[in-house]
Write a structure and sequence with these properties.
- It is a single chain.
- It is built from eleven helices and no strands.
- The chain has 308 residues and is an all-alpha fold.
- Helix 6 packs across helix 7 and helix 6 packs across helix 11.
- The two termini are 59 Å apart.
- The relative contact order is 0.05.
Length: 308
């Protein structure tokens, strides 16, 4: 009975907190709308017909206003440096779900709150100690808070790996297009349209910036800074220097693609050399004990039966 009362009290407490927060966030907007409605000749919302009220879904009437109000409040509270750092991290991960820094931080807080309330309700019925309930609940909520960070880190690694895998083939095709008589911008555009992936998207974004008036050097510099991959940054630095000093792009790209393939061969050899060492861990922990049991087990049983 005490657990049930605690659950009802927790639900009522969090409901009052959320209601007060929504009232605090939306009160200024509601006040402004009430003042503007008579001036623009629109009737009060209470006089709307049922047909007009049913035209908007629950998402448009409730969820979106709450979401935008929370975003506005959080964006006013977040420091500019933290916002820029988060924006850069999301950009390096490919901007999953078109998240902004405010959306990312707001999702973290929502996951923390939802998991905290849900785990409090769940662990109340499974544990007698209130201390254990609080510890388990906060650990679950902390896991929900850090999950978006782990997701962004994983997306960033996958994106960098995909870019590095397609580097040599992409710039080989660009070099062939240059040898066929195309300009650098046209070759980059054509190859980016034919090859799909994050590298093509980044190149197309740089070309769009050049169309808006940005110089090639500035566009390539911002492209180099956006992608945190050392092989890609070295290729873009070589292209920037070749464009600045008037060096032939075909020779530069041929040398860069040759160097990229050599680096991939060396990385493959390095992984092959590490494979036996990595295989020792499962062999020692899993395979050898089983072999010892199968081989030495009958001998040990026979020795024990003879002695006793």
């Amino acid at each position: 009975m005490s657990k049930f009362l605690f659950l009802i009290g927790s639900f009522g407490f969090f409901t009052l907190i959320i209601a007060g927060l929504l009232h605090y966030l939306l009160r200024s907007r509601l006040r402004v709308e009430r003042r503007l409605l008579p001036l623009i000749g629109v009737e009060e919302p209470a006089d709307l017909t049922p047909v007009q009220t049913e035209e908007k879904s629950l998402r448009e009437r409730v969820i979106q206003p709450i979401w935008f109000a929370l975003r506005r409040t959080l964006s006013d509270q977040m420091p500019s440096k933290a916002t820029m750092a988060l924006e850069k991290r999301l950009q390096e991960a490919g901007s999953p779900f078109q998240w902004t820094a405010v959306d990312y931080r707001l999702i973290q807080f929502i996951l923390f709150g939802v998991l905290l309330v849900g785990s409090l309700a769940f662990f109340t019925y499974t544990n007698d100690s209130m201390g254990k309930v609080m510890i388990y609940s906060f650990l679950t909520a902390a896991l929900g808070f850090f999950y978006p960070f782990l997701y962004i880190v994983d997306k960033r690694k996958q994106r960098i790996l995909a870019i590095e895998k397609s580097l040599s083939d992409f710039f080989d095709m660009v070099g062939v297009s240059l040898e066929a008589g195309m300009g650098l911008d046209g070759a980059l555009y054509k190859v980016s349209k034919r090859m799909e992936g994050p590298l093509s998207k980044e190149i197309l974004q740089a070309l769009d910036e050049m169309k808006l008036g940005k110089s090639r050097r500035d566009a390539f510099t911002s492209l180099r800074d956006r992608v945190p991959s050392e092989p890609f940054q070295s290729v873009m630095s070589a292209l920037i220097q070749a464009d600045q000093f008037g060096i032939g792009m075909t020779k530069v790209l041929r040398a860069q693609t040759r160097r990229l393939r050599e680096q991939r061969r060396q990385a493959a050899r390095e992984k092959a050399m590490k494979a036996p060492i990595k295989m020792m861990i499962p062999m020692v922990l899993l395979i050898f004990p089983t072999l010892f049991i199968v081989i030495l087990g009958p001998i040990i049983v026979q020795v024990i039966t003879q002695l006793f």
